Amino acid sequence: MKKEFKNCPACFEGKELYGFDWKEHVVAIPSPLVVVTSYKANGKTNATLQSWLTFSNSDGFYCIFADVSKYGHMYQSIKEQKSLVINFPSADIYPKCYSTIANNQYDDAEIEMAGLTAEEASTVHAPRIKECFLNLECEYVWEKELTPDSYHIVMCVKVINVVMDEEYYNEQKKGRYGNTGYLYNIHSPANPETGKEEDTYLGILKKIKRYREL
Ligand SMILES: Cc1cc2nc3c(=O)[nH]c(=O)nc-3n(C[C@H](O)[C@H](O)[C@H](O)COP(=O)(O)O)c2cc1C
Fold first, then answer.
1. Are 91 and 177 in contact (CB under 8 A)?
2. Would residue 26 count as lying in a domain?
3. What's the helix, strand, coil split of the chain in %, to 5?
4. At 148, which CATH number?
């Protein structure tokens, strides 16, 4: 039976949701996990995990970040440099990518401190993560506040160059999906009747049926 949830269920009231809306936990829609890299003003590498993002294809290939904090190094360095790389890690290197959250001081070289390799992008002034199977070299295009005075913004960047491991774009080899492919953030799904929250999980994608077999 389907149930409707328009107002915040009582079980969520007073619960620490770390700035997230209760609806986020009820729907818990998985979103792709990436590491955005750029240079800070001191030349050190910045690495920021992002997962609220999508892509637009009609008039070129663009990434729309839905929820970028205005007070983080990612926002600051992209505004200064106008360049960034979107790196796609596979599960084996995700713990290293996650460690960038702990090594997040202005003077930290965040890619190197995570035990990953920084290499200069070919087309924009930003570092890319060598161990990631896909790097999208991008230029900043525009931003907009989601709501007036919000401390998060929606940011649009244009993909200028695609750098991809051949084993991943060949679906007969590793391919893009399954255990070694794209990662998804499954952000603590919660039961709106009991308030019970599950752990946050790292997800992968499994192909189930060809479109021509539907
Ligand atoms: C799985 C995951 C997804 C995240 N997604 C976002 C996001 O979409 N937007 C955001 O502003 N922060 C996001 N964060 C938080 C930032 O990665 C974190 O605050 C980071 O330390 C900010 O780094 P910076 O100061 O270098 O920008 C996410 C964190 C995790 C663990």
1. no
2. no
3. 20, 35, 45
4. 2.30.110.10
Q: What is the pLDDT of residue 56?
A: 97
pLDDT tens, 98-146? 999 999 999 999 999 999 999 999 999 999 999 999 999 999 999 999 8
Contacts of the segment 141-145: beta carbons below 8 A, 24+ positions apart: 141/62, 143/68
What DSSP assignment string belongs to 103-144?
S--TT--HHHHTT--EEE-SSSSSEEETTSSEEEEEEEEEEE
* Cα dihedral across residues 158, 161, 165, 171: positive or negative: positive
- Please tell me the residue having the least CA distance from ligand 1 atom 4: 50
Distance from C-alpha of 25 to C-alpha of 15, rounded to nearest angstrom: 12
Check residue 177 and report its DSSP letter: S
Ligand 1 closest atom vs CA 200: 1
**Pocket (CB within 6 angstroms of ligand 1):** 33, 46, 48-52, 67-69, 72-74, 101, 104, 185
pLDDT tens-digit series, residues 161-173: 999 999 999 999 9
Distance 176 CA to ligand 1 centre (A): 23
Do 193 and 9 touch, CB atoms closer than 8 A? Answer: yes
Whether 6 is in a domain gets the answer no
Domain holding 40, by residue range, is 34-174
Q: Is there a domain that residue 72 lies in?
A: yes
Residue 3, in any domain of the structure: no
Ligand 1 pocket mutation, candidates 29, 33, 45, 50, criterion most atoms within 8 A of CB: 50
Neighbours of 146 (CB within 10 A): 12
